[in-house]
Each structure stands twice: as C-alpha cells, then as structure tokens.
Amino acid sequence: MKKLKLFLVGFAVSVSAAMYGNSPVRFIDVNAVSHEIEIIMEQSLCEPEEGFAVTVFFSISEENRIQELQIASSNQELNAILLMKLENQELTGPSWRLGKIYELSVISAQDGYITSVENL
C-alpha cells in the first residue's frame, strides 16, 4: 500500500510538472524578452563573463508570435537553448509591430545586464 501511495504521488508530480513546467511564455514588450534572455543566460552559463553579448534578431508573425529567429553569440550551446526557448513564443501588448525586425542585444556587465534594442 505504501508503494502504491508513493507511485501515485510521483505520478501526480510528473503530470503537473509536464502540464505547467513548459507552459508557453507570453512577452508583453521587449523588456520581457530581454529579461527572459538574461534568465536563460544565468541558467545556462554558470557565470557569464563581463562583456559577453548575445544578439537576437526576430520578426513578428500575423499570429503575434516570434518568427525568423536568429541568434548571434560566441556560445553555440546558448544559441541553441535560446532558439528552442524563444522560437514561436506569443507576443502580447500594443508595443509589437508586424513587419518590423527587432534586434535585441543583451550584454553581461559587472552590475547585471545591459540591453540594447533596435527596430530595423
């Protein structure tokens, strides 16, 4: 009986993690995207060295999702993680414009991160 209870608890935890752990992220503005990039950088790089930069280029689909995502940094593993986490994410809020190409650079600094945004 004890093993059955443990199995049911484990199963419930697994199901809830699968349902809620990978829920899609919705970005309300460019600051939300840069914040997500900062979090991913901190999680994937133990301590990003000062001056490490990631530049993300993307446009917005008619369904208000990130499309045509391109990532430039010297760390190919981080590029792959960012591509996987950001591709096709939903964009909400009035600040997003269809047809624009966004260039977002996040640079690690001594006191945190510096973000630069350009609309191309």
Give a structural overview:
The chain is an alpha+beta fold and 120 residues long. Helix content is 38%, strand content 30%. It is built from three helices and six strands. The strands form two sheets. A four-stranded antiparallel β-sheet has the order 3-2-5-6, covered by helices on one side. Strand 2 and strand 3 form a beta hairpin. Helix 2 packs across helix 3. The longest helix has 19 residues, at 2-20. The radius of gyration is 18 Å and the shape is globular. The N and C termini lie far apart (63 Å). Residues 15-22 have low confidence and may be disordered.
Rounded mean pLDDT score = 81
Question: Count of helical segments?
Answer: 3
State the separation between the terminal residues, measured CA to CA: 63 Å
Shape label: globular
Proportion of residues in helical segments:
25-40%
Query: How would you characterize the largest beta sheet?
Result: 4 strands, antiparallel
Note the beta-strand portion. Answer: 25-35%
Any idea what the radius of gyration is?
18 Å
How is the largest sheet built, in terms of strand order?
3-2-5-6
Order of helices and strands: HEHEEHEEE
Q: What structural category characterises the helix and strand content?
A: alpha+beta
Tally of DSSP β-strands: 6
Q: Unreliable segments (pLDDT under 50, ≥5 consecutive)?
A: 15-22
